Amino acid sequence: MADPSHGPASFWTQANALLRKNVIYQRRNMKTNILLIAFPFILCLLLVLLQAFVNSQLDKPSNNCGCACVNKTGNGQCEQVCGLEYSDLDQAGTCSIPNPPEWPPLLQIPAPEYRAVRTDFIPFTDLPNESCRSSGSCPATFLFTGNNQSLGEILAGNMITSSFTLNASDIVDSIATNVSGSASEPETNNFLDPAFVSSEPIYNVQSQCSSNSTFSVSLQQSFIELQEVVSCVQGLHLWRNSSSEINDELYKGYRKGNLERKINEIIAAYDFLNSNGNSFNVNIWYNSTYKDDAGQTSIALVRVPRSVNLASNAYLQFSRGPGTKMIFEFLKEMPKPQTKVRLDLSSLLGTLFFTWVILGLFPVILTSLVYEKQQKLRIMMKMHGLGDGPYWMISYAYFLLLSLIYMLSFVIFGSVIGLKFFTMNDYSLQFVFYFIFINLQISLAFLVAAMFSNIKTASVIGYICVFGTGLLGGFLFQFFIQDTSFPRGWIIVMELYPGFSLYRGLYEFSEASFTGNYLGTHGMRWGDLSNSMNGMKEVLIIMVVEWLVVLLVAYYIDQVVSSGSGKSPLFFLQNFRKKRPSIRRPSLQRQGSKVFVQMDKPDVSQEREKVEQLLLEPNSSHAIIVDNLKKVYPGKDGNPAKFAVRGLSLALPRGECFGMLGPNGAGKTTFISMMIGLTKPTSGTAYVDGLDILTHMEGIYTSMGVCPQHDLLWETLTGREHLLFYGRLKNLKGSALTQAVEESLRSVNLFNGGVADKQAGKYSGGMKRRLSVAISLIGDPKVVYMDEPSTGLDPASRNNLWNVVKRAKQDRAIILTTHSMEEAEVLCDRLGIFVDGSLQCIGNPKELKGRYGGSYVFTMTTSPDHEEDVEKMVRHLSPNANKIYLLSGTQKFELPKHDIRIADVFQAVENAKSKFTVFAWGLADTTLEDVFIKVARGAQAFNVWS
């Protein structure tokens, strides 16, 4: 069936075989793959539809610049005109503003309840008492320091005026000329200063407030008239000895988002450094820690220019006299065109939805790996020569390719339909982020797959992780990110969970695209990673490290737990240990074997001695040598240990088919499981072509074929594709591979009628069984294990299969288990009857029948009246005859062979026929089934008695 000169398949040959099989398998599952790729498309389309609906609502007139019908020509016909003058405050933000309004420059004044006071955590006693907060009379504090305190005191005094000068004709100029400020929070633009439209008053900072220092003013700005309250607040300037004292005081009074904590805010702090009459140097501290309702730092304007102007004017007055000033008249925004109200849903909702989309690949990869484990397809491939290296490389590369196609389709489609989440952020940064995460996700799937053996359980757990991660990220983790008071170290600890790393990265993309769209700037770029507030850099580092660590741990666990019977936890150190020889000499002290030797039958003892002799030979012609192999399952819940295999010794030369007979539970399948690497022996070992099953199983797999008890097939692959795959694993190539496959299909009668190209899932049970036998024989394996190969076959197919096995015996050893005595007699050169874990007898069928079948079975049927005559005739032939059956004239007797001659039986029957009517009679030799029953009953009775 194959060229016997071919050697083991190389790494790349195995990888090529697995790759071809995977490509075919995925092509057959094209609908599933298309649905998988379509999932992000559907989600993107859903977001587009939602975006279109939101835009349609935002495009309503009530949300856009106000319009009116104006008669410009006086002819009675009006013209639709839009502008600020026809808009309310809600509409004004979308209007064209060619000439933005001028707003007076203001200071950021702390609200009365936050102004600096004496506390237990700030040591300075020059601050006011905390009781002023209840009355709202706390002064607003400036802090000063520098190398020259006297100069600093002069400059501080020049900054604060002693009165408020009101010009009723120009309120804006009055506010700008005086030192004014507001506790309102600034916004991202200054078209409409919140200080003049909020409930907060305008504060005028004076050195001392009079009793009547609060009044109302009217302010006309552009199209609106504003009523504003101007209130005096005392400005308190305090000297500190150094900038470090100021830093300490500012930090302890810092607003951290926790309103229960005492907050001490100052207007500004000034360090005049080495300023003197000839030079002016100053550092200014200012407060930019205001937050929006979600706890996120606002990207807003800060009221800093007025602080700079105050310091500059104070120095000018010091050096040039009190009448010298740099007048700071107003602030104004840049002009803007008419805009529309827009809300980018992809950025707003993208973090949660896209987390689900990307993590949706995890259960797909996980269930695919667990499916191969549950169906034992992985170990089936391994037993036919597929190494762990090619399996990991091709499987990982396949999942990586699938993930890349999935993510590229997702990003490209999202960009084509215009989702800002994708279009505004740098594509190279997105690619790096997604590439690293999908590698981490694949590695994690390999690691988690080692913990599951059931695909349904793995699928449920996988999807719980997907949706649970998204929900926890959106409703818990995100709040920790936004809360600047939450320790950054704990954020990093939480990001060690890969799902939160993904969520944090998507959150940063979302924030960047949302802000960029709102402000008309760009999204995230590589340069933004250096921003301490941006968590993308730490996420990328965490994911790269976890990817490598998880991949190594997953491979290690796979080697120890998942690969057949597993390896020693210290298997990676085996190259540093002295290699043990392929065939070792038997130990002088073989624990526990004496008991079995004393109870063994002569044929079993002879087999054991033969094994011991073969182990002493440097080169053995025997393909399989089993040396005192044992398997004991530990007792549980108080039950005794279970001896599945009790010290089995066996030697099989090439060209022999050895049949294992035994009742259910005798240990036959356990023995084969140890020989093919599924189970580790408790003690003892076996050698296959000189290789030890304990240390060289990888080498044994390259020359081994297995027909398991249950068919291990891919439902969507055809019979031909199965044989092509396993043939390639056995290093068959080109015409030799094609010829071997064709011959295999013909030999098991799967060639005609298009059966070879029919998917295995549509095969009958018998067809699957024949395909499993063909797989076990493809590629000329030197050793073949067949566990009940003819189960479920019709008589014609069974006879055909027997012929295949007979031809396959040449130059290879076959171990076959069966419950069919006929099959055992036809196929097996030698038989061993296995009972309760031990070998009871061994020999060819003829020897066993001769050894355990020392009687004939004589049967005769007459009328009931002549039953005694028949028994007298049999007693005359053999006094030791034993009646074993009697029913309505039909009797059966066991006749010891040494008591009778067959000719005497025939003569006695002829004499009986002349005396009474004989309806039927027969004389049969002992069958193999009789031998099996006799040995099994005898062994079981002995075990019960003992």
TrEMBL record:
<dbReference type="Pfam" id="PF00005">
    <property type="entry name" value="ABC_tran"/>
</dbReference>
<dbReference type="InterPro" id="IPR026082">
    <property type="entry name" value="ABCA"/>
</dbReference>
<dbReference type="InterPro" id="IPR003439">
    <property type="entry name" value="ABC_transporter-like_ATP-bd"/>
</dbReference>
<keyword id="KW-1133">Transmembrane helix</keyword>
<dbReference type="GO" id="GO:0005319">
    <property type="term" value="F:lipid transporter activity"/>
</dbReference>
<feature type="transmembrane region" description="Helical">
    <location>
        <begin position="348"/>
        <end position="371"/>
    </location>
</feature>
<feature type="transmembrane region" description="Helical">
    <location>
        <begin position="431"/>
        <end position="453"/>
    </location>
</feature>
<dbReference type="GO" id="GO:0005524">
    <property type="term" value="F:ATP binding"/>
</dbReference>
<dbReference type="InterPro" id="IPR013525">
    <property type="entry name" value="ABC2_TM"/>
</dbReference>
<feature type="domain" description="ABC transporter">
    <location>
        <begin position="624"/>
        <end position="861"/>
    </location>
</feature>
<feature type="transmembrane region" description="Helical">
    <location>
        <begin position="460"/>
        <end position="481"/>
    </location>
</feature>
<dbReference type="InterPro" id="IPR027417">
    <property type="entry name" value="P-loop_NTPase"/>
</dbReference>
<keyword id="KW-0067">ATP-binding</keyword>
<dbReference type="InterPro" id="IPR017871">
    <property type="entry name" value="ABC_transporter-like_CS"/>
</dbReference>
<keyword id="KW-0472">Membrane</keyword>
<keyword id="KW-0812">Transmembrane</keyword>
<feature type="transmembrane region" description="Helical">
    <location>
        <begin position="539"/>
        <end position="557"/>
    </location>
</feature>
<dbReference type="InterPro" id="IPR003593">
    <property type="entry name" value="AAA+_ATPase"/>
</dbReference>
<keyword id="KW-0547">Nucleotide-binding</keyword>
<comment type="similarity">
    <text>Belongs to the ABC transporter superfamily. ABCA family. CPR flippase (TC 3.A.1.211) subfamily.</text>
</comment>
<dbReference type="GO" id="GO:0140359">
    <property type="term" value="F:ABC-type transporter activity"/>
</dbReference>
<dbReference type="GO" id="GO:0016020">
    <property type="term" value="C:membrane"/>
</dbReference>
<dbReference type="Pfam" id="PF12698">
    <property type="entry name" value="ABC2_membrane_3"/>
</dbReference>
<feature type="transmembrane region" description="Helical">
    <location>
        <begin position="391"/>
        <end position="419"/>
    </location>
</feature>
<dbReference type="Pfam" id="PF24526">
    <property type="entry name" value="ABCA12_C"/>
</dbReference>
<feature type="transmembrane region" description="Helical">
    <location>
        <begin position="34"/>
        <end position="54"/>
    </location>
</feature>
<dbReference type="GO" id="GO:0016887">
    <property type="term" value="F:ATP hydrolysis activity"/>
</dbReference>
<protein>
    <recommendedName>
        <fullName>ABC transporter domain-containing protein</fullName>
    </recommendedName>
</protein>
